[in-house]
Amino acid sequence: MVTNELLIKYSFTQLGLHQLYCNISETNEASIKLFTREGFNKVGLKKDWNYKNGSYKNEYLFQLLNK
């Protein structure tokens, strides 16, 4: 079992969390791919959320529910 899976399992079984979530910049393709692969779903888009290098950037909200 890889580290990501262990952290998710620990969060749900040992900590009793109902959900995990993360915020990822719209342009961060590597993180989007990683969290999608681990079962996270894109549930929202925060428009113009972060100001960087003179312009505003969108940010996605990803969520994984403990089923």
SSE sequence, one letter per element: HEHEE
Strand order of the largest sheet: 1-3-2
Q: What structural category characterises the helix and strand content? A: alpha+beta
Major sheet attributes: 3 strands, antiparallel
Number of strands: 3
What is the multimeric organization of the chains shown?
A: single chain
Flag low-confidence runs.
Answer: none
What gyration radius follows from the Cα positions, in whole Å? 14 Å
Q: In whole angstroms, how far apart are the ends?
A: 19 Å
* Beta-strand percent range: 35-45%
Mean pLDDT: 95
Q: Share of helix among residues?
A: 25-40%
Summarize the structure.
With 67 residues, the chain is an alpha+beta fold. Helices cover 30% and strands 45% of the residues.
Description:
This protein is an alpha+beta fold and 67 residues long. The protein is 30% helix and 45% strand. The protein has two helices and three strands, in the order H-E-H-E-E. It has helices at 3-13, 29-37, and strands at residues 19-25, 41-52, 55-65. It has a three-stranded antiparallel beta sheet with strand order 1-3-2. It is elongated, with a radius of gyration of 14 Å. The model has no long low-confidence stretch (mean pLDDT 95).
How do the strands and helices of this protein lay out in sequence?
Layout: H1 3-13, E1 19-25, H2 29-37, E2 41-52, E3 55-65
Antiparallel strand pairs: 1-3, 2-3
